[in-house]
Amino acid sequence: MALIGTLFFIFTATCVGANKVFATVQCRESFGKHGQQSLLECVVQPTVMAADTEIEIVSWTKEGDKKPLLVFNDGKTKSQPGYMFAEPSWNKKNMNVSLLITNTTVAHAGVYKCWLKINNGDAEWTTNLKVTAKYSKPIIRSVPETIPQNTDVALICDSDGGYPKGAIHWIVEHDTEWTKSSEMKAEQGPNGLFHLSSKLTLLRGSIFSKYTCVVVNASGGIEEETVFVIEDEPRPDGQGGEKSDSTSKIVAPVVVIGSLIIGLMILLLYRRRRQNGHLTSNSSEEEEEEGLRNKDDRSSHV
Ligand SMILES: *[C@@H]1O[C@H](CO)[C@@H](O)[C@H](O)[C@H]1NC(C)=O
Ligand SMILES: *[C@@H]1O[C@H](CO)[C@@H](O)[C@H](O)[C@H]1NC(C)=O
User: Fold this and answer.
1) Which ranges in the chain belong to alpha helices (H)?
2) From the alpha carbon of 221, which atom of ligand 2 is closest?
């Protein structure tokens, strides 16, 4: 609750004519997410709330833009597309003059100004909108695609669509930070979102089995991570490659000989069964053959 309290910036506006306080305006610090709605929350609190207290004019502008985003004057509201009063059926008696941005983009980040006329005085205040966008789960690929023995390899990790600018960290095995051995590029796309790409070079002889690419946002929080596993783990002394080679040299003949033996056994079993069959059901087979011959005879007679 204390945190929420500190998030309120209280601005005191003074009555222009009589130079006395007529209203305070409370604005909450605004956080927007790219692609979602953002609320610039501001509420007017007149020092004297009479039954006839009405807001005469409201004007929302963004610092750097001359054209107002939303204006209420003479009982009518005019706004640019994508901006509206946050209160669904706002009227001049409603002290909640919050602005709603319907589809937030990175370009919406900045300082907003609201000016209003009330109780024959006017007041102006500002609120800052911070926009964030979450980075995508990183994708790691190796160059070259299949990792040969005894060559240097690079791992490339890409993550997209984040804001503000973040960073890519590399963790080797379980907890060894290797970010210093990597090179990162951050490119801003036309929509203002960042694409991060980091290259980690692995030197032959010191290739480990597990590499984790971690995407860290602007405030240092972990957003996403992906693990890359190098399956055939060669030992740093170079023995690993030879070992796996000799293993395959042994495995291949074993498979060939094994299948030959199994094939022979099946053949032997089959022949034995046939011999057994002949011994026991010789007569029935002969009878069958006889029957067939008879059938043929009969058909030829017809
Ligand atoms: C102002 O209105 C908006 C939209 O209805 C609402 O989300 C917000 O909580 C209101 N603020 C206050 C202080 O009443
Ligand atoms: C960064 O990530 C942390 C943890 O996920 C999150 O709490 C924080 O709001 C994020 N900050 C920004 C600027 O995106």
Assistant:
1) 2-7, 239-301
2) 2
